[in-house]
TrEMBL record:
InterPro entries xref list: Prot-tyrosine_phosphatase-like, Tyr/Ser_Pase_IphP-type, Tyr_Pase_AS, Tyr_Pase_dom
Organism field: Microlunatus sagamiharensis
Pfam families listed in its UniProt record: Y_phosphatase3 (PF13350)
Protein name in the entry: Protein tyrosine/serine phosphatase
Family: Belongs to the protein-tyrosine phosphatase family.
Annotated GO MF terms: phosphoprotein phosphatase activity
Superkingdom per UniProt: Bacteria
UniProt region (Disordered), positions on chain: 110-132
Segments forming domain Tyrosine specific protein phosphatases: 165-223
Amino acid sequence: MLAAAETVRRPTYDDRVPRWIDMDQLVNLRDVGGTPTTDGGEIVPGRLLRSDNLQDLTPADVDALLQLGVTDVVDLRSDYEVEMEGPGPLSRTDVVHHQHSFFREWREGVGEDKTSESPEAAQAVEERPEAVPDEALPWVDLEPSVEAENRVTSVYLSYLHDRPDSVLAGLRAVADADGAALVHCAAGKDRTGTLVALALTLAGAEREAVVADYAASSERAQQILDRLLASDTYNANLRDRPLSSHLSHPETMRAFLEHVEDAYGGVEPMLARIGWTPEDTARLRAKLRG
């Protein structure tokens, strides 16, 4: 029997959907397992987690994530955010980190080698604007490169237009993770919400279940904002914005998925235009469906 000082804290689940996981620091951590699929099944728990920033995890948080089987982290923050925040505690473990910015950032030499990209992706690189480093933040009011009636939907579509390479790489990292993949950005709701919605849709999740998973972040909006305001990286940009501007409205994700359906015939045909393959889909489905 362990002495009190040796007791290992076990992560606690909420078995409902969304499956919230309580941590000392993370406030927007949940397992998408249990999400219903169109064929009457569900996404297997313990395969794909999503969260806010991993920057200030406690030792107990690190232990809990390892107990949950996390082997891969898909970090969607910009290069600027990563540089400003520095390495997080989980980087000192054997967890594999995949950093794929969803912003087109200016860096000398970045984007010059397009030989590995599809023609559609290469054209997007030529067309998309580049953000100078201190604008590569999620709430800087850059003009989206894709127009849609819903302003936030425009931002999500712009991720695909601006960084198709990162979108594909992020999805493949989820599919190929040895254990659980954890996707995060800063708040864990916009960039993370977009990639997770794509992954769930490819795995056959019901559309309204994908929308509900996205919208669940609003339940933790104040806690998410409080965490980010404590960081020098985000404070100046966030402190004058109302809480209402940080909510994940279901109509935003619904409009995103409907736009993809109307414009491309669905998520898979859209991703195929930038290099996604049927083999990629098969691996992702096997990962999330078992």
